[in-house]
UniProtKB/TrEMBL annotation:
Organism field: Bacillus timonensis
Source organism, top-level taxon: Bacteria
Family according to the record: Belongs to the isocitrate and isopropylmalate dehydrogenases family.
Alphabetized UniProt keyword annotations: Manganese, Metal-binding, NAD, Oxidoreductase
Domain Isopropylmalate dehydrogenase-like: 5-348
Designated name of the protein: D-malate dehydrogenase (decarboxylating)
Lineage: Bacteria, Bacillati, Bacillota, Bacilli, Bacillales
GO molecular function: D-malate dehydrogenase (decarboxylating) (NAD+) activity; magnesium ion binding; NAD binding
EC number: 1.1.1.83
InterPro entries (UniProt xref): ICDH/IPMDH, IsoCit/isopropylmalate_DH_CS, IsoPropMal-DH-like_dom, TTC_DH
Obligatory cofactor(s): Mn(2+); Mg(2+)
Broad class of enzyme this protein falls into: oxidoreductase
UniProt entry tagged with the keyword Zinc: no
């Protein structure tokens, strides 16, 4: 029997709703597999916590989380707390402290999804690797001449050799395992003078170690257009923190929307826990109505299972989601249905049980 400790942070808005479906899935995995147990601890660190305590997490939060095998996060953000506080005091410290330098986001058109590009192609299956610890997301910089007409703000981007090398290496090793053996490097070295040429330069250096992989460099503006006009071309796309962030919302949109798009914040060396979370946010507009789509969170659990070396469970989760999508009878409103969060969760679990009888 293998035991895994999972720190669960349901968060704000629709986070707790989708998380409770995720917890049901973890339970069903234990039943199906028989050889795995999850010891789950839930932490109510969110914007309400901030309003009570003046901080998003207790001071020793990272010390507490450090010993878990994985972290599952719902979504963070509420109108009561400025976004830069909720993000900079919860999500970003976790991604950084635990060296989750890979943000892995599959962009895959699942069976049963009629994407907005349905007339163009049905073959969308790539992964965006987003650098997750530096780049444009820094708190280096400041403001000067505040409250004067010549007030100014400076925000510094940080690109380190170490940071670039490790994310490009990861992207290449992933490309080696995939069908098309192609890596697209997102850049903007025509407009950004220092950092992007440096990013390209190091990517080229690293690329020499992977002669079997076809590499192309694509400026972020053109790349965004290609996501729409020829998405079937891509296999692995690697980008800086901000470029990866923007590309993956667009990626999610072309394969059925944010309601289904998963992500993993991964520390490949497994020196620290990795964190799995849907790409979507806390969606305050629909929170509490019981209609949020739990698929993104449940698929993120699939990524977690893959990271914990249970590839067969990860496949089972994706297949079960696909069965529900193909049947089209139990879908949340974002996918054109009228089912509730709980009904979709239950349906996926039913499929998992059905399919596992065949495959285990
Ligand atoms: C994401 C989100 C976050 C990010 C926000 C909430 C800071 O958009 O995970 O894509 O930009 O990293
Ligand atoms: Mg984002």
């Amino acid at each position: 029997m293998k035991h895994y400790s999972i720190a669960v942070i349901p968060g704000d808005g629709i986070g707790p709703e989708v998380m409770s479906e995720g917890l049901k899935v973890l339970k069903v995995i234990e039943e199906i597999h028989g050889g795995v147990r999850f010891n789950k601890d839930s932490f109510e660190w969110n914007c309400d916590y901030y309003l009570k305590h003046g901080k998003m997490m207790p001071d020793n939060a990272l010390g507490i989380l450090k010993d878990y095998d994985s972290i599952l996060l719902g979504a963070i953000g509420a109108e009561s707390v400025p976004d830069h506080i909720s993000v900079w005091e919860l999500i970003l410290p976790i991604r950084r402290a635990f060296q989750q330098y890979i943000n892995l986001r599959p962009i895959k058109l699942l069976r049963g999804i009629e994407g907005p590009l349905r007339n163009k192609t049905n073959n969308i299956d790539f992964v965006v690797i987003r650098e997750n610890t530096e780049g444009e997301y820094t708190n280096i910089g400041g403001r000067l001449h505040q409250n004067t007409p010549y007030e100014l703000a400076v925000q510094n981007n940080v690109f380190t050799r170490y940071g670039i090398e490790r994310v490009i290496n990861y992207a290449y090793s992933l490309a080696e395992k995939r069908r098309k053996k192609r890596l697209t490097v997102a850049t903007k070295s025509n407009g950004i003078y220092h950092t992007m040429p440096y990013w390209d330069e190091i990517a080229k250096e690293v690329g020499q170690k992977y002669p079997k992989i076809k590499t192309d460099y694509c400026h972020i503006d053109a790349l965004s257009a290609y996501f729409v006009t020829k998405p079937e071309y891509f296999d692995v796309v690697v980008g800086s923190n901000l470029f990866g962030d923007i590309l993956t919302d667009l990626g999610a949109a072309i394969v059925g929307g944010l309601g289904i798009a998963p992500s993993g914040n991964i520390n490949p060396e497994k020196n620290f826990p990795s964190m799995f979370e849907p790409i979507h946010g806390s969606a305050p507009d629909i929170a509490g109505k019981g209609i949020s789509n739990p698929i993104a969170l449940i698929w993120s659990i699939g990524l977690m299972m893959e990271h914990l070396n249970f590839k067969n469970i990860a496949d089972l989760i994706v297949k079960s989601i696909e069965e529900v999508l193909v049947a089209r009878t139990v879908l949340t409103p974002d996918l054109g249905g009228n089912a509730s969060t709980v009904e979709v969760g239950d349906q996926i679990i039913e499929e998992m049980i059905k399919l596992s009888v065949k495959s285990f």
